[in-house]
TrEMBL record:
Protein name: Nucleoside 2-deoxyribosyltransferase
Biased composition (Polar residues): 125-138
UniProt xrefs under Gene3D superfamilies: 3.40.50.450
InterPro entries, per database record: Nucleoside_deoxyribTrfase
Region annotated Disordered, chain positions: 110-138
């Protein structure tokens, strides 16, 4: 368990939420991060915020953005050759708000839309580039 002098940090755990596999991976990964950190890193999963009933997409979006902005850190799962647009938007909001962020790239394929003969580009959507650091890992 984290010592009483260490601050527990909440992190927003963003990623695609379209399949049971997506939801399951988010839960398992967040539980492991919490366990491995001795409870220091506590997840806020967007799937736990989803409202049911008479709600609008705008209500869901606004609640997710407020949750992201309330966190100390953020983790973004970039899954697949084509990134989930909602995750990219959340990443950009986190960058604009100076929220420390980590990208978890789960696809080994070199996707992205910025490759040319002169530049290998980064392996994801142009809107996420130049504000991320890969330390030479591609």
């Amino acid at each position: 368990m984290a010592s009483s002098q260490e601050k527990n940090l909440t992190y927003y755990h963003a990623g695609p939420l379209f399949t049971v596999a997506d939801l399951h991976m988010n839960v398992l990964l967040s539980q492991e991060i919490n366990r491995a950190s001795g409870g220091k890193y506590r997840p806020l999963l967007p799937q736990d915020l989803e409202q049911r009933g008479n709600v609008t997409p705008q209500n869901i979006r606004d609640k997710d953005i407020r949750a992201l902005l309330s966190c100390d850190l953020a983790l973004f799962t970039y899954d697949g050759a084509e990134l989930d647009s909602g995750t990219v938007v959340e990443f950009m909001i986190a960058k604009f708000a100076d929220i420390p962020s980590v990208i978890l790239r789960t696809d080994f394929r070199g996707g992205g839309d910025q490759k040319s003969e002169d530049s290998p580009g980064q392996p994801w959507n142009l809107m996420s580039s130049e504000s991320t650091y890969t330390d030479g890992l591609r």
